[in-house]
Amino acid sequence: MRADIRIYVTQDCPSCKEVIRYMERYKERTFRPFEVLDVGYNKLHFQEMLELGGFATPFIIVNEHKLHTFDEALLDRLLEDDHG
Amino acid sequence: MDKLWYLSRISLFESLPPEDLEQIDKMAPMTHFNKLPKNTVIQQPDSTVEGLFIVKEGKVRLYKLNADGKQFTVGILGPGNMFGEVHFISLGTKGLYIETVEETLICSLTKNQFENFLLQRPKLAIKFLQILSDRLQEKEELLERIALGNLQDQVLYLLVKLADKFGIPSEGGMVKIDMPLTHQELANMIGATRESVTVVLHDLAKENIVITGRMNIQVHLSKAKEHLANKLDEV
Predict the structure, then answer these.
(1) Any idea where the Cyclic nucleotide-binding domain is (chain B) (predicted)?
(2) The whole model's pTM is what?
């Protein structure tokens, strides 16, 4: 069972690091868990990302919402709506 | 008219020189071992993907479908080319299908990364302007070519464009277009039928301007350009 909030990442991807840092700060405030899945090495995670329509990292899932890039303002809004 | 417009955009996505892309490369280094398989549809017209993306390895094809379901290729992006839409910049890929042509690796850039990058490098911003201006000029040339040219000119012009962008030198002054291309795919790119493109390619092969093989095409660039220049003089 996957978490509602997931980030599909690769190592050495600066945007991935940014979004992970962002989510860690979010988790400290809200205690909501999130899942980080490596798609660079893990074939199953990669396949899962493809099936969800992801094609580049970081690929961010918030419930049914899919973000193909890390847009902080948009993610702020999504998480607020989702939590709220 | 639509067809002309789509065709004229084939040259819209010329990549920046490698040295200018090195910095962008550092922002989105390549670490995947897993690549997107060939023929993965990345974007459909009704669901434009937000973000800025760079093709790191492989190629993607941008295309539209007309009412009859016929494909018009708008552009082919190779390594170093960018595509995408964010609210402050449009790379002209809205409302298109984007599909991988071969195994491909794509990375995303955040808006901030891209903005800061350009702000710190005014020269690169100027280069973007140059590219835009070149696009305009090419578009005018192409419109003229299509308005006045026959199918042979269109095919030849397309092959020259593809060879300029994806060519690798081959024997006897030929340049091999480094991507698998069927006659049908070429026809899609200029909105012609496969049969007519095949006829044109045979004619060009007889004149030793192109060599066609299974899924690959070689072009004699200087002969092709000379051919097109002569045609332009005639009109």
Answers:
(1) 12-118
(2) 0.63
